Amino acid sequence: MLGVQTLARRIRSRLHDKDEITYEDEDILDCINCGVRFIRRVIANMRPALLMTEHNGILPKGVKSIVLGTRPTKIINVTVGNPEKALDETEFSHAAHNSKDETGTPKEFYLTGTQTINFYPTPDAETPYTICTVDDIEELEWEDNSPLLTEFDDFLVEYAAIRLSVGNEFDMTQETQFLANIVAQIQQILVPPPAGFVVGGYWQ
Hints:
The protein has helices at 4-14, 25-46, 92-97, 150-165, 172-190; strands at residues 52-59, 65-67, 72-80, 85-86, 88-89, 103-104, 108-112, 116-120, 122-123, 127-135. It is an alpha+beta fold.
């Protein structure tokens, strides 16, 4: 979790621009923010639980929707009841075909707008819920710290250096290869290969 200014210095060092002649601060900050989103998307696809926020509450009888306090970019799962039961995700268009007056224990959920979770059917009793999400984040400013682990900040520096260099040195094919390499390195951290095992020799 490095500071943005520390990240910028490392990016400039990678680009041989310590004198701050070639690249504007704004361009570097833009690339840092793009890099944070890029890396978070990779993590969200591979190990979303690392970015997970848990929202808990009680649905009153007859209330079929709640508004989350933050905007989710990914809904990992939604459970209701005690013991918890996972709900299936559906779309508004599908839920609209069902009876809006149906009540009971919710079996499905769907998203409307950016923050509203709807339950179907409408609860006929107080119902506890848990919603696990990957939430959107605000763009970083110069005084902020990276929201990533320090180990992932290395990839952030690499990403920004690649993107800033594209117009000067690299073609799009090379950029794609470099970004694929970053994804592969992140994958090695998030999804390590299974532990090896030792097979005894034939004559043992």
